[in-house]
Amino acid sequence: MSKKTRKKSPKAAPQKAASGKAARAQSAKSAKTQRTKSRQVKASESTKKAIKKTGDATRTASQKAPLKALKSAGSKPPAPKISAANTPAPKTAPAPRALAAAKAAPIKAKAASPAASKPPAQAIATPAAGKSGLVEGAKAPAFHLPRDGGGTVSLSDYAGKKLVLFFYPRADTPGCTKEAIDFTRLSAAFAEAETALLGVSADPPKAQEAFRDKHELATPLASDEQHQMLEAYGVWGEKSMYGRTFLGILRTTVLVGRDGRILKVWRNVRVDGHADEVLAAARGS
User: Where is the composition biased (Low complexity) (predicted)?
Assistant: First the structure.
């Protein structure tokens, strides 16, 4: 080793030692600073946890306090208040009598209607005032009327014979057609019983002729357009059908004896089987 080298070596050693000491001091200081910061962070976290725990405990205690007080008092929490303005009015059930009256009203209204209470065939019929006194044993009112085919017909034409007068409301209507056909069917039997037949309505002679020709009727048909004979026999009166009131012929049959007196009167006639019933009465008189 040279002298120059030997001279420098002792001086460099103290410098390295000083540098290492400073580094160790600096490192220790940094470690101390780091430990301080760590302790501060831990302390801050502990403080936050303590604050949070204290707050939770406070809130829990504040929530439990009212329930605990109510429980100790033995009562339930008050029900929420409902405003009267927002509360719907309660529905009141109808009284039993009112409900029964409401149910009975349609039935009473139906019963009050003539059309609803009775079928058309049973419509209410009332003879004209003062003309309903035709009874068995009374003298048959005289008449003189035009008939189908021209000419006239009167009560005197049948003197000494029995006569069936069947009054029908209108020519060529269903009930009247069936009735006229039934009397035509039995015309020979009536002739054997010495009983004549005469149909009467308020239709004009031309309508009677068309009615006769259409259905090949064998019985003469008289026309009383002025209603004089119809009123005299009490078969022109007030009728009610479908709620409408009007005047018309009330379907009626009269059996006149050989002496010109009334033997039998059938009022509000039902067509089915009627001609046979009249024939039986004519044979027995």
Answer: 11-31, 84-101
Architecture of domain 121-283: 3-Layer(aba) Sandwich (3.40)
Q: Which long-range contacts (CB under 8 A, 24 or more apart) does 150-158 make?
A: 150/205, 153/198, 153/220, 153/222, 155/256, 155/260, 158/196, 158/198, 158/256
Residue 167's DSSP bridge partners are 200, 252
**Contact of 222 with 199, CB cutoff 8 Å:** yes
**Catalytic residue set:** 176
Query: For the chain, how many helices (H) and strands (E)?
Result: 8, 10
Domain ranges of the chain: 16-73, 121-283
Nearest to 211 by CA among 243, 277, 191, 202: 202
Rounded Cα distance between 19 and 14, Å, is: 9
DSSP letter string, 195-261: EEEEEEESS-HHHHHHHHHHHT--S-EEE-TT-HHHHHTT-EEEEEETTEEEEEE--EEEEE-TTSB
Cα–Cα distance for residue pair 99/116, rounded to 1 Å: 24
CA-CA distance, 282 to 266, in Å (whole number)?
Answer: 13
Q: What interhelical angle do 174-185 and 274-283 show, nearest 10?
A: 40
Query: Considering the entire predicted model, what is its pTM?
Result: 0.56
Going by C-alpha positions, the residue among 33, 262, 283, 251 that lies closest to residue 139 is 262
